[in-house]
Amino acid sequence: MSDELPKKQLKQLDAALTEALLNAQYELRQAGRGPLLVLISGNDFAGKAEAIYAFYKRLDNRHLNTRAFSLPAGIDRDMPRLWRYWRSLPPAGEIGFYLGSWYHQPLIQYSRGEISRERFDELMHEVLRFEQLLVDEGVGIIKLWLHLTPQHVSEQQRLATDPSAQSVAMREWGEFSATDYEDVRAGAARMRELTSTDAAPWHQVLSHDSDYRDMRIGELVLDACVGLLERAGDQKSIQWLDSPDRLQDELDFSLALKKPDYKQQLEHYQNRLRKLVRHKQFARRSLLLVFEGTDAAGKGGSIRRITECLDPRHLRVHGTSAPTPEERSHPYLWRFWRRIPGPGSVVVFDRSHYGRVLVERVEGFASANDWRRAYAEINDFERQLSEAGTVIVKFWLAISADEQLRRFQAREQTPVKRYKLTDEDWRNRKQWPAYQQAMNDMVMRTSTPAAPWHLIAAEDKRYARVTTLRIVCESLERALGLR
Predict the structure, then answer these.
(1) CB 458 within 8 A of CB 248
(2) Confidence check: pLDDT of 181 > 90
(3) What are the DSSP calls for 373-428, one per residue?
(4) CA 102, CA 383: separation in Å to the nearest integer?
(5) Strands of the sheet with 346-350, listed across from one edge
(6) pTM (two decimals)
(7) What are phi and psi of 93, to 5 degrees?
(8) What per-residue confidence (pLDDT) applies to 235?
(9) Three-state DSSP class for residue 354
(10) How many other C-beta atoms lie within 10 A of the C-beta of residue 326?
(11) pLDDT class of 2 with cuts at 50, 70, 90
């Protein structure tokens, strides 16, 4: 482009592009759309850093984010692979540039022969699911491969290593030879073949001419911004059939423990749990406990009997309420990815990521398409945690409608418990059949071998507390190979 156009005309085109990009950035922020993620990959000497600098010259820097990732080290190696990328997502209305994105580690491992083609393909399909979830949540993704022909590589390399040169080489690949780069290019071609979609396409940009490169990338980003602003909210409706079973009807609400038995068993299982989380093998694992249930079913009491025997330095309890404005500006799983446990620690979700298929479904806070696709997204989320060493135990504490009414009335009469009862609790009670159906669908669709649901009859609080403790202990023992 720049070889063919006079400098004056090129300058005019650049000014027009800058104005259009600024307008699109402003409109994106005003509309609360996005964010737009720009993934920049390619040859180390193709000008990845310079391409980003061009946007910092053109646009409002306050709403630009650059994320740069090297190969995982420290805590990143012990967490699910996509964890650090989830945590880095910018909010809606912003543009994020990614260097060393979620593609970098699999591609460098494949290029070096450290993983097989089959494993590489598996990781690419994992990335596809990740990107599709982001796109479905309103995120825009554009993926750029900055390409240098072999004859231009040596010249760009010379310029990048010249002390007097102004360019900065983003050394993602290390000291690779020409043969190594051929392996990278071959792997990258397969990567683009497997993961270029209509929603998140790959674009190969010739980069030996910096003016052409920056103009072309600017045009692609502008098109992506306009696409986000014009994106229609209507999607093809996901077909749906409610699960026919009524799981709560199968529970035995007469199960109970006498007080002496309760005290004995409570002490036994608390001591057992205390020893398990101190076990040397648990240092390489983590524990995520998910508590859902009928309002007033006693989640708080069961959680306290678990947490009171654990070291608070390695324990976090997260109560999930309505999302904050910041959380609403990100995909719904973002806030839960930020709270998952690290090695040797325990995290408890008091209400959880299942709100998408429970309260958001019943109360109409999520569209039918959003909550219907959430089952597969949640399963994928939990699968990634499990594969990284997290033991996931999920509880649904159930009580009958009559017992709930008795507990609501008792709370009204008890000063220290009155704060627990809200108008929302009474409103939810009127939706009892809808919540029962939502619970049933949730359990049937998200109870997996790696993350099973445990339905607990909780009319007797002592029985429910001891049962949840026992299940946590047994789940940990199985995971640690102790039973």
Answers:
(1) no
(2) no
(3) HHHHHHHHHHHHHHHTTEEEEEEEEE--HHHHHHHHHHHHH-TTTGGG--HHHHHH
(4) 18
(5) 315-319, 346-350, 286-293, 390-398, 453-457
(6) 0.90
(7) 90, 0
(8) 65
(9) helix
(10) 11
(11) very low
Place of tokens 């929302």: 424
Task: Compute CA distances 294 → 263, 318, 403, 416, 428, whole Å.
Answer: 25, 18, 11, 21, 10
The answer for residues whose C-beta is within 8 angstroms of residue 428's C-beta and 6 or more apart is 295, 359, 362, 435
Q: Is the peptide bond before 331 cis (omega within 30 degrees of 0)?
A: no
In three-state secondary structure terms, 65 is: strand
Measured distance CA(352)–CA(442) in Å, rounded: 13
Q: 98 near 69, Cβ under 8 Å? A: yes
Instruction: Label residue 304 left, alpha or beta by phi (over 0 means left) and psi (-120 to 50 means alpha).
Output: alpha
- Specify the DSSP element, H or E, that contains 441: helix 432-446
Is the separation of the CB atoms in 442 and 245 below 8 Å? Answer: no
For β-strands 95-99 and 140-147, DSSP reports them as: unpaired
Query: What are 39's two structure tokens?
Result: 């993934």
Write out the two tokens for 255.
């199960």
CA angle 311, 317, 321 (to 5 degrees): 170
Count, residues in the chain: 483
Helix (H, G, I), strand (E, B) or coil at 79: coil
For residue 299, what are the contacts with CB-CB under 8 A and spacing of at least 6? 291, 292, 293, 350, 395, 397
Inter-residue contact 354 to 442 (CB < 8 Å): yes
One-letter amino acid for residue 331 of the chain: P
Which of helix, strand or coil describes residue 292?
Answer: strand
Write out the H or E segment, with its range, that includes residue 39.
Answer: strand 36-42
Distance CA 393, CA 352 (A): 12
Task: Give residue-wise pLDDT tens across range 90-112.
Answer: 999 999 999 989 999 999 999 98
Q: Which has the closest alpha carbon to 133: 325, 384, 319?
A: 384
Cα(218)–Cα(236) distance, integer angstroms: 31
Cα 298 to Cα 151: distance, rounded to the nearest angstrom: 70
For 250-264, letters b (16+ CB in 10 Å) and e give ebebeeebeeeebee
- Determine the residue type at 95: I
Q: What is the pLDDT of residue 243?
A: 84
- Tell me if 315 sits within 8 A of 307, measured CB to CB: yes
Proportion of the chain in helix, strand, coil states, percent, rounded to 5: 55, 15, 35
